[in-house]
Please model this.
Amino acid sequence: MKISNSDINITILGSGTCVPSLRRTSCSVLIETGGKKLLFDSGAGVMRRLLEAGETIFDIDFIFYSHFHPDHTGELVPFFFATKYPTEKQRQTLLTITAGRGFKRFYDDLKAVYGHWIELEEGLLNIAELDIQIADRRIYKAFTVLSIPVVHNPESIAYRIISLQGKSVVYSGDTDFSENLIMLSQDADLLICESAFPDEQKTPGHLTPSLAGAIAKQANVRKLVLTHLYPQCDLTDIRAQCRRNYDGPLIIAEDLMKIEIN
Model:
């Protein structure tokens, strides 16, 4: 059993994108707080990264989806299929999947293709849809989650997880510059923020290092992690670009990187 004195433990499972890479798996984060394990997005390669981090799919209590693009949801079907595999470690506890409104229809469409192979036993799956027009929240025994729409896809939302001790982590998901994200991230202990392309290759619907830095600066976050990095970012000094606007603690994400919040 792993023992930690930290209030929140974060593992960057994937720091990359849809581009196949041995270094960077699709963007995904594992957050542990209050005895619960929260998975944020599950693109290709995430289940393997979970194993490399010492976890299994049966350990996950919650999955949060930022939006429905394949590089963020691609392993949902394999996750369900693997969960049904008859081993001594079959899922015994409830799995809650949280996403923006429209996810139930998205899941129903997947079931229309895969049928019972991705349907869990009765009582093992709960789906919670959050508002995609205004801020929303859910309060659980182990943590509180706040959400807010961001600028990417119609269903795109960012999340803020607040521990029982009041510590907070924000996961941006994919987004362009967003006043909503600034509001959600205000005074957060950690902002895990997409920074898909270098400044000179700004792409609609995505942030760059300097824009991520501007959001972190305006939100007064205590620490910033840049993630969702396309290969161009590894050929550029994205740290220097971010420093144009943000002078606080800064981390460039790598797969399996661990961060603690005390």
Summary: The mean pLDDT is 95. The helical segments are 46-52, 70-73, 76-83, 103-114, 179-184, 209-219, 238-242.
